[in-house]
Design goal:
The protein has 89 residues and is mostly beta strands. The chain has a single domain, classed as Nucleic acid-binding proteins (OB fold (Dihydrolipoamide Acetyltransferase, E2P)), CATH 2.40.50. 6% of the residues lie in helices and 52% in strands. Strands 1-2-3-5-4 form a five-stranded mixed beta barrel.
Length: 89
């Protein structure tokens, strides 16, 4: 992937909700929409399966992900970077 093409890829942030699989994780991505009739803001949540090559993410981490070519049937996003780690309590 060239640098120019990499700039145009979709990026988003979310929270890791599962990392039980090898080199994979599930990320919950939240987006805000305005209801067309009531003008109230609604939060929609989407679960996205991502490719995590080094198994670096843990449950509760806030991560940045980017879209890529399809890696498997359900994975077409790659872990870009870990923004925040969950603190142990």
């Amino acid at each position: 992937m060239t640098i120019d093409n990499q700039k145009n890829t979709r990026r988003t942030t979310g929270i890791v909700i599962s990392n039980a699989m090898d080199k994979s994780a599930t990320v919950s991505v939240q987006r805000r929409l305005k209801h067309p009739l009531y003008n109230k803001y609604i939060y929609k949540t989407t679960k996205i399966m991502i490719h995590d090559e080094e198994n670096a993410s843990n449950v509760g981490d806030k991560v940045s992900i980017r879209e890529s070519r399809p890696i498997s049937k359900n994975k077409a996003w790659i872990l870009d970077q870990i923004l925040e780690t969950k603190r142990a309590e």
